[in-house]
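Forwarding these from the shared drive since the link keeps breaking.
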Amino acid sequence: MAYNVEYEDRKDYLYAHITGNESYQNAITFFHNLKEKMEKENWDAALIVDEVKGILNTNATYELSREIAELHRGRIIAFVDPKEETFSQNYFGGTVVANRGVVTQVFKTEEAAIKWLGEILNKNKRR
């Protein structure tokens, strides 16, 4: 079963709230669908709130992160994982994605992610 995803237009970025059960395939499907939606609707930035249940192992996280980087290179993604048991794994994945050309950071709170995203988007507007 795929993630449940709720999208919201937040003016400067696309908001996506994901729930459901964690699996490599669910995550790949979500990030492919996110790419299609961002391209179709002309979004450069997204804020993702991850409230899925379960955890991927380190190898799966690494492979998933490499795929995310390929799909979203050049975009800006703030990723929120409020769950203590999965935060460090997602933080590792965020580092892999960032090292491959996506402007991204992983946060514990939505408020911190919104602040960071606003700063990044404002900096890019001034260029």
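-- next protein --
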Amino acid sequence: MATARSKLPSSAFVYPKSRKYPINTIGRARSALSRASSSRNSGSYRTVAKAVRARYGNRVATVGAKRGNLTTPGLRGRSR
């Protein structure tokens, strides 16, 4: 697993210098979004969401216009 990650190009990561949050597949992009939204990683969700939107558009539901937005990812699908 670590060898496959080390073979990824720097462009596959949200933070290429530190090689954090790989988004080379849609599954990894979803995982990066969920990990960035945890309370320990405050401030990184917006950066990860922008990178995922730039790469995949609305194909990832958490960032899509109808189901969520950049500031409130947990509100998708809920009625107020």
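Residues 26-70 form one domain. The helical segments are 2-6, 26-36, 45-56.

- D.
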